[in-house]
Amino acid sequence: MKRIFTLLVVFLCSCSATQIEYQNNLKVLLQNSTNEDYGTLPKEYKAITETGIKMLLKDPDSAKFIWSEPYRCNFPAKDSPATPLLGWCTKVKYNAKNSFGGYVGYKLHETRWYKGDIYSVCSQTQNGLIFCSSK
Description:
The protein is α+β, with helices and mostly antiparallel strands. It is 30% helix and 28% strand. Strands 1, 2, 3, 4, 5, 6 and 7 form a 7-stranded mixed β-sheet that branches.
């Protein structure tokens, strides 16, 4: 039991150190950033995102989408969690029919864009499903 507790403490300390380093790096990055550092959001971002979501659905033709405005955001680099990247985030709520033909309710999906491409870690977050990408 003591060993598990010790491992948990070490894990929590390492997470907070990475978070502190991320925040410090972000402050420096934001002080020196310009609008160009965020890159451009592709004009067809909605079509790209909708196609990706539809690939996961049982009845893609029934999909309904409610879009929020895209916004500039920062997120950690996959290969270096302490390194912040500046890019764009888009959020959409989607709803589609299940195998029984009934709508399941709206789910939130977030896509992160970095230098014009989808960029994200492969995970489920508080903002919903995030696409996985090789970028």
